[in-house]
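Incident review: delayed structure delivery

Summary: a single-chain prediction request sat in the queue longer than the usual turnaround. Root cause was a stuck worker, restarted by the on-call engineer. No data loss occurred. The affected request and its eventual output are reproduced below so the record is complete for anyone auditing the incident later.

Affected input:
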Amino acid sequence: MKALAVVEPGRLETVEIPPPEIGEFEALVRIEACGICSTTDRELIHGRQPFHSKYPCILGHESVGTVVETGSRVSSFRVGDMVTRPVAIWPGEERDGFASAWGGFAEYGIVRDAKAAAANGSEAWMQDYTAQRQMVINPSLSLPDAVLSISLAETASWANHLPPVGGKTVVIAGTGIAGLSIALWCKLARAEKIIVLGRRDERLALARTLGADDVINTRICTAFPPRAKEILGGGADLFVEAVGDPDMVSHGLACLRSGGTVAIYGVSEGHRHTVSWSQAPSPASILLPPVEEHLSRHWVESAILEKWIPTGQLMTHQFGWKDVKPAFDSVFQGRTVKAMVAMCCSN
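Output delivered after worker restart:
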């Protein structure tokens, strides 16, 4: 089967590897599409992912596919189910000369039935990061919406751990899929006022349609903390770092009112942030909420089907396999909000 490999840092190639073989608690999945993650995929391609150092590796962690075969003791998945996050090579494992960078950019992958395994005396998969997130998708979702729902469920689960934002003021740094969807979640939670920070006018315009009351172009207004405090009449109750800039936490602290919180979603290179308390109010706090998409999946699917989420404005680009490398270039150059690669399409 074909798969997309990072053969060495900085070099992507299409390779041929054998399809995975399933065990009694596993299901074989024909992968239909995989989303491109502008943070983790970029780190893996350039050799900067702090938790991954083995190459060559098969890339992709936002995959969606259809179950085509089940192991003899599988009970949670059935042939025909659309499922999230099938992987060609299980994280932490190696086969046929390749390591796993999840392996969602491949023609086939596997999902593991953690519940069935636990019912038969083996509970290890119940706490496995990947197995937890392998779930059956509502069949009413389109393929693009199913892929997008992975990102949306991540940010929705993260936002569930924020201090209550109803009636509060919020500043969000970042106009990628994370920042834009968090703006939407804050709007749905009835935040009093939302400001979104970004460097692209077209993305800032989109942020307004998703619920931002005001925007600041930080390419033009570099001294944005005073401007944000001015707009909000004293400062923000919550500042969301969703851009992955190591200096943004310090800027966020400078945007807060007394008692405010900076919450970190963005992943900076090396997972490091600088913190300067010189302009922070007292008290102020920094929060690192967990991402538990499996706990928000059903709610996000319902929100998509109820048309609360303008998915067409978020999943902006769909590529076929022959354009997989240009797809990555497009994402990393900021020309897409969210993009996916359809595995079965030639164009």
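Verification: The chain has a mean pLDDT of 95.
Action items: add queue-age alerting; document worker restart procedure.
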